[in-house]
Structure formats: structure tokens, C-alpha cells
Amino acid sequence: MHPQKNAGLAAVLSAVWSGLGQIYNGQIAKGIILMIIQFINSLLFFVLIGFITYPIVWIYGMVDAYKQAEKYNRRNAH
Question: From CA 30, how far away is CA 45, in angstroms rounded?
Fold first, then answer.
């Protein structure tokens, strides 16, 4: 039996640093990709598009981390 993932913690980790919640959930590649995308988005602040793209990816990361932790828990609840 696998230990349960805390969905709230996964969301908070992604709120603190985009992609960290995915890494906590075991989705290493997805987490690293989100980190790279957010780095690029932070650079895009200089051309103003980052003000739109950064929050979208940030919110996506939090919601995805939460949902993936819940999915992991359902799949491993034996």
C-alpha cells in the first residue's frame, strides 16, 4: 500500500513554487516543465504578456496538483 498524498499540501506547494506540487505527487517531468514555463513567463513580464500567462499557469499548477493528488489517493486506496 502506498502512502496517501495530501491534496491540500500539493496545492500549497504549487502555490509557493509552480511545479513543486507535481513533484510531490511524483510527476517529476511535469513539475520541471511547469517550473521552466513559469521562468519563461516571469521573463515575459518585461513585454507585459507575462501578466496574463503567469497567473494562468500558476492557477493551473495548483488545481492540477490538487486533482492529481486526489486521483493518486483514489487509485492507491486498497
Answer: 23
Q: pLDDT tens for residues 28-53?
A: 999 999 999 999 999 998 899 999 99
Residue 4 lies in a domain: no
Tell me if 25 sits within 8 A of 11, measured CB to CB. Answer: no
- 20-29 residue pLDDT tens: 999 999 999 9
Q: Which of 3, 10, 14 is nearest to 69 (CA)?
A: 10
How many domains is the chain partitioned into structurally?
A: 1
DSSP 42: H
Are the C-beta atoms of 20 and 13 separated by less than 8 Å? Answer: yes
